């Protein structure tokens, strides 16, 4: 029997981008073996996809409940250990909650749930289950994002004064301006996506990233969201002002109607000694800015980087690493936790990140609906 962690996958079949991202990431460090799952609710598509990617079909199940029922019949040494949830948002909570109740480890796409209340329930379930839970805020796995975090933790920026994140995409333009399309896509359906599209999909990445790298906690938000059309119930653009711990202030700008933008995620943190800037579309460059000194560019793989950054670097300097590597680093961290090996707490986002992310989404929408007022983010442990 292989000593690899036995992985099951829910969703992510067909031409799903997120599906191939997770499958490649899980294989990257030879820590996991995909042994079963439910890739599609349609049986023919489900079993056909399993054959397409070369999986034995004896553990491809007709639905989620059958997966749990049949896997629990197997000896513990054979059953699936961890399940990745790659389904539409509204299925995240019921699936994750039942998996935890039955002793499985969980890797969950974001947003973790569709409501903050569900997120808190999930956190309580995890406390009882005592298993491993990760939320795939993928960008935290980039080596130079991890370097950014470590430099800030080590005080190289001095006292943090300002945090800033911009996440711009333009993909929803062909959908939002067509009444029939915007009424039929699940992304703009509150019953399937929750109360937010843009903030829930990409704004939450910015929220988690700023807390991850800066070490400050976002305590209050003031949001101004854009729905563009009166019949559209989901935000597709928004600006959120931030009040953080340690008297730090900041801003998150996110948009899915930024025409021509692909995946422009830019993170900036400024201290009284220096500033750092990272851009997702050029992830190998971390810019160090200091008053009166030339701009310095830090790159992955060099000995001047932190242990956490180097642990997530697989190639020699000068060889690009990308989003597959970033997700792979998260899977690697989860594997260490499942195997009870020592790991850095920056190696994968936990359920607390997911809970805070859901709180942020709801508070941003609440702030907008109340006339753009400040509302507090709750502290969760």
Automatic annotation (TrEMBL):
Question: Cross-referenced InterPro entries, in alphabetical order?
Answer: Gfo/Idh/MocA-like_OxRdtase_N, Gfo/Idh/MocA_oxidoreduct, GFO_IDH_MocA-like_dom, NAD(P)-bd_dom_sf
Q: Which residues belong to any copy of the GFO/IDH/MocA-like oxidoreductase domain?
A: 145-276
Which is an annotated Pfam family here? GFO_IDH_MocA_C3
Q: Which GO terms describe its molecular function?
A: nucleotide binding
Instruction: Give start and end of each Gfo/Idh/MocA-like oxidoreductase N-terminal domain.
Output: 29-137
Q: Would you say which domain of life the source belongs to? A: Bacteria
Gene3D superfamilies reported for this sequence: Dihydrodipicolinate Reductase, domain 2, NAD(P)-binding Rossmann-like Domain
What PANTHER family has UniProt attached to this entry? CONSERVED EXPRESSED OXIDOREDUCTASE (EUROFUNG) (PTHR43708), OXIDOREDUCTASE (PTHR43708:SF3)
Name assigned to this protein: Predicted dehydrogenase
According to its UniProt entry, this protein's organism is Algibacter luteus
């Amino acid at each position: 029997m292989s000593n690899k962690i036995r992985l099951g996958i829910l969703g992510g079949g067909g031409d799903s981008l997120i599906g191939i991202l997770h499958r490649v990431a899980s294989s990257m460090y030879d820590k996991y073996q995909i042994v079963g799952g439910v890739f599609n609710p349609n049986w023919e598509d489900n079993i056909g996809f399993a054959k397409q990617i070369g999986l034995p079909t004896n553990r491809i199940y007709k639905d989620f409940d059958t997966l749990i029922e049949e896997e629990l019949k197997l000896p513990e040494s054979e059953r699936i250990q961890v399940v990745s949830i790659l389904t539409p948002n509204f299925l995240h909570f019921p699936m994750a909650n039942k998996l935890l109740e039955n002793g499985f480890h969980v890797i969950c796409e974001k947003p973790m749930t569709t409501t903050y209340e569900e997120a808190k329930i999930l956190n309580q379930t995890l406390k009882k289950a005592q298993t491993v839970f990760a939320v795939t805020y993928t960008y935290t796995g980039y080596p130079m994002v991890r370097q950014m975090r470590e430099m800030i933790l080590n005080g190289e920026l001095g006292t943090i004064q300002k945090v800033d994140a911009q996440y711009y995409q333009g993909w929803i333009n062909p959908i939002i301006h067509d009444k029939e399309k915007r009424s039929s896509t699940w992304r703009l359906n509150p019953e399937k996506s929750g109360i937010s599209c843009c903030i829930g999909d990409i704004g939450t990445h910015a929220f988690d990233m700023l807390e991850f790298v800066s070490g400050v906690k976002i305590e209050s938000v003031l949001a101004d969201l854009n729905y563009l059309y009166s019949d559209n119930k989901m935000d597709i653009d928004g600006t959120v002002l931030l009040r953080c711990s340690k008297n730090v202030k900041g801003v998150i700008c996110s948009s899915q109607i930024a025409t021509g933008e692909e995946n422009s995620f830019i993170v900036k943190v400024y201290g009284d000694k220096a500033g750092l800037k990272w851009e997702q579309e050029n992830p190998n460059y971390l810019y160090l800015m200091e008053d009166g000194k030339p701009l310095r560019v830090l790159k992955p793989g060099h000995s001047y980087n932190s242990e956490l950054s180097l642990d997530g670097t697989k190639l020699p300097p000068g060889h690009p690493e990308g989003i597959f590597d970033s997700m792979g680093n998260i899977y690697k961290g989860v594997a260490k936790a499942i195997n009870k090996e020592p790991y850095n707490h920056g190696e994968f986002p936990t359920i607390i990140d997911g809970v805070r992310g859901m709180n942020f989404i709801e508070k941003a929408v609440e702030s907008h609906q109340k006339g753009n007022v400040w509302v507090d983010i709750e502290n969760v442990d």
